[in-house]
Amino acid sequence: MQKKESKEKVENEKEKLLLHACCAVCAAHPFDLLNENFDTTIYFFNPNIYPEKEYLIRRDELINYCEQNEYKYIVEEYEHDRWLEYIKGFESEPEKGARCDKCFDFRLLKTAQKANSLGIKNFTTTLTVSPHKISKNVFASGQKAAQLYGLNFLEYDFKKQDGFLKTMQIAKKNAFYRQQYCGCEFSIRKIEN
Length: 193
Ligand code: SF4
Prior knowledge:
- The chain is of the alpha/beta class.
- The chain has a single domain (15-192), classed as 3-Layer(aba) Sandwich (Rossmann fold), CATH 3.40.50.620.
- The chain has helices at 2-13, 24-35, 52-69, 80-86, 98-118, 135-149, 163-173, 185-192, and strands at residues 15-20, 38-44, 72-75, 122-125, 152-153.
- Strands 3-2-1-4-5 form a five-stranded parallel beta sheet, sandwiched between helices.
- α3 links the parallel β2 (38-44) and β3.
- α2 packs across α7 (163-173).
- The protein is globular, with a radius of gyration of 17 Å.
- The chain starts with a helix and ends with a helix.
- The model has no long low-confidence stretch (mean pLDDT 93).
């Protein structure tokens, strides 16, 4: 009993952090790392994902993972039309280009807004797990959002120090669904071409 109470005390003493997560595959390793030092809540806001069927598969996989492990999580509405409006004019940009930078902006601005509304001072994202994302561009979006709300964006490059390898190992162990494309309809076209 005393052990449980002191564990709860340690949890309460940790600073809070909101972790934007794009899917269960990318969330598991960053969560393990961060939760050692932060009271971490996973935040699913990914209106970039298309079609809705694919969105629901990724969302529900993450929800199941959080519930099985008793992790705190928040899921937002699917606002794909708003996302399309935001990236308008950049549809034919290549992956890793300007459309992706806007996509990071869109998701991290909302994450910062949510953190701010919850009184959470720290936030970061799992987006740097992927070797297909330019981490410095993810950091630039995070810092812009942090500045707007007076928060701390933590610059973790989760693919480093074998992070990507560990991510793949956890995905295999948990038999996570593995998507075949980044998320939006424009990234599907790229694979088909
Ligand atoms: S390819 Fe991925 S990061 Fe780039 S715009 Fe599409 S969903 Fe967003």
